[in-house]
Amino acid sequence: MIELFSLVPNSFYASFLISIAVGIIGSLIVINKNSFIAGSIAHGSFGGIGLAFYLSSPILLTTSIFAIFLALLLSYITLKYPNRSDAVIGAIWAIGMSIGIIFAHLTPEYNGGLISYLFGSILTISNEDISMMLGVDVMLVCFILVFYHQILLVSYDREFAQVRGLNVAFLHTLFLVLVSLSIVMSVRAIGIILVIALFTIPPFIAERFTNSLKSMMIVSSVLSLVLVVGGIMVSFYYDLPPSASIILLSAAAFFLSFLRKDS
């Protein structure tokens, strides 16, 4: 493992930083049952990647702006039309992907590197990616430190939170914006197609063995780190795709958690 770290140190730094995001945002996605919304942001953000390639603009910046726009749009829809939001969420999912495909097709001398954002490659993480991950993690930690009790109340009893005078719309919107940034920071490593699995499987497992949101976040962060590092090692030593290795290892842990719990 020491040899592997010396060859691809950024992969291990990324594993740690992504695990923090999985612990915080992934736990909130799971307890609020927002996996479909998060999936829509993840897949829809491909439109931002395609646009960045077409305009030859900074990929992380362009994709972040595009993903934040999707988050704001989804926040408005889910708050304004909660009973009809599922259809619109699905449409945004497909529209974002379609925009990305169109711009990729229109890009002169199309660069196949766009495919790496679909499937990810944590072994090729750059210093720029690490910097963004660190910045987003700082925002996530500040968010949870400042709003932990409000988020806890909104997550488990939204109507009571509104009665107590909490600005539920603001918290919901801020949460989705942070979801979008967490996804963008992770797509280069894990890929758009698989990123939601990483953000939901470790928190789901952690939820089964914890009895508080705080402990769920900590356990899911640690579990995510173990699974990502384990997936990197499997990928490196057996010459397999890293993202798929990480998710399959996570899936194995997911099913084992049921066996362990029921035994």
Question: Could you spell the SSE succession in H and E letters?
Answer: HHHHHHHHHHHHH
The number of strands is 0
Tell me the domain tally: 1
Q: Report the helical percentage.
A: over 70%
Q: Mind telling me the CATH superfamily name?
A: ABC transporter involved in vitamin B12 uptake, BtuC
Q: Which spans of ≥5 residues are poorly predicted at pLDDT below 50?
A: none
Radius of gyration: 18 Å
CATH class: Mainly Alpha
**What is CATH's topology name?**
ABC transporter involved in vitamin B12 uptake, BtuC
User: Mean of the pLDDT scores?
Assistant: 89
Strand content: under 5%
Largest sheet: none
The count of helical stretches stands at 13
Q: State the separation between the terminal residues, measured CA to CA.
A: 33 Å
CATH arch. level architecture: Orthogonal Bundle
Estimate the global geometry from the Cα principal axes. Answer: globular
Structure description:
- With 263 residues, the protein is mostly helical.
- The protein has one domain (2-256): ABC transporter involved in vitamin B12 uptake, BtuC (Orthogonal Bundle), CATH 1.10.3470.10.
- It has 13 helices and no strands.
- The longest helix is centred in the middle third of the chain and has 30 residues, at 127-156.
- It is globular and about 55 Å long.
- The two termini are 33 Å apart.
